[in-house]
Amino acid sequence: MNAVEFMKEHGIEKARFVIGSAEVGGVVTPKILDLKKLVQSLEL
Fold first, then answer.
1. How many other CB atoms are found less than 10 A from the CB of residue 21?
2. 22 burial class (0-12, 13-18, 19+ CB within 10 angstroms)?
3. DSSP secondary structure of the chain
4. How much is the pLDDT for 11?
5. Which domain of life does the protein's organism represent (predicted)?
6. How do residues 12-43 score in pLDDT, each as one tens digit?
7. How far apart are CA 6 and CA 25, in angstroms?
8. C-alpha pair distances (Å), 16 with each of 1, 33, 41
9. What is the pLDDT at residue 41?
C-alpha cells in the first residue's frame, strides 16, 4: 500500500502513529518516508 492509499483508508492520525512508531524503532522504510512527507505536506 502506498502512502496516499494509506492516508485515504486510515487517516492522518493513524499515519502519525505509524511514523512515530517507525522512528522510535529506528527502522524507516521508503514507504514510511513517503507517508511522513505526505503527512508533513498536509500540516502546512
1. 11
2. middle
3. --HHHHHHHHHHHHHHHHHHHHHHHT---HHHHHHHHHHHHHH-
4. 92
5. Bacteria
6. 999 988 888 876 766 667 688 888 899 999 88
7. 20
8. 16, 12, 12
9. 92
Joined together, the cell numbers standing for residue 25 give 524503532
Residues 1 and 33 sit within 8 Å (Cβ to Cβ): no
Q: Are the CB atoms for 38 and 9 separated by under 8 Å?
A: no
Cell of 26: 529506528
Q: Which three cell numbers stand for residue 30?
A: 521508503
